[in-house]
Prior knowledge:
Structural class: alpha/beta
Oligomer: single chain
Strand content: 25-35%
Shape: globular
Order of helices and strands: EEHHEHEHEEEEHEHEHEE
Strand order of the largest sheet: 5-4-3-9-10-12-11
Largest sheet: 7 strands, mixed
Distance between the termini: 44 Å
Low-confidence stretches: 1-6
Amino acid sequence: MDGTGARNPVMLSRGLRIPKHPQITTGRMRGALREGTYERKECDAVTRVVRPGDRVLELGGGIGYLSTLLAVRKKVGRVVSYEANPALIPYIASLLAANAVTTVEVRNALLTPEGGDPVDFHLRRNFLGSSMDREADPESIVETVKVDRDRLGDVLSEVAPDVLVCDIEGAEATLLPAGDWSGLRCAVIELHPQWIGQCGVEAVFDAMHRAGLTYFPKASEGKVVTFRRGW
């Protein structure tokens, strides 16, 4: 049901139309989507700091939920979203289409300090578990594909983002210190201290401070930290 009584293969979440998918919108994720708690900390943070017309660079697009929310609810000018998992790209497209979003550009690539040749990406039967790590669960791999790598400096020059949204499963500790983020007004970053340790967390904070951004506790919660320019 779509909330109006008509049968439709979508559910509603924070006012967004979420297409149902047999491998994505299931179990715990389905419940969180319906309750409006999916990616709650990130959603709360971006809702507080993002402004209409902003240019947003998103690293780690996931299912496309946050970029769609920014386009629909915050009326941002543009989102460039990087998602390495090729199995998610068709679903993201369906989510954007279901909400008539045309301001989000999804790039199936990795953003790295130096760019380089494409790298192997391993698709698994549960494609939410797909990754570059072959050894994590080699028996579940159904296909290995190549994913492009884009150079961070080139993308920052091209997009000129006002806002960074970042959830890249620990790669933040090496990628963010390699960039010139001085053009940002704010950044929302999910940290992964279980993988990057205290030194990695400090590297992220140092990178934001070098860019002139200050930790903003009112839009931070747990591992989701927000930085902004000025007070």
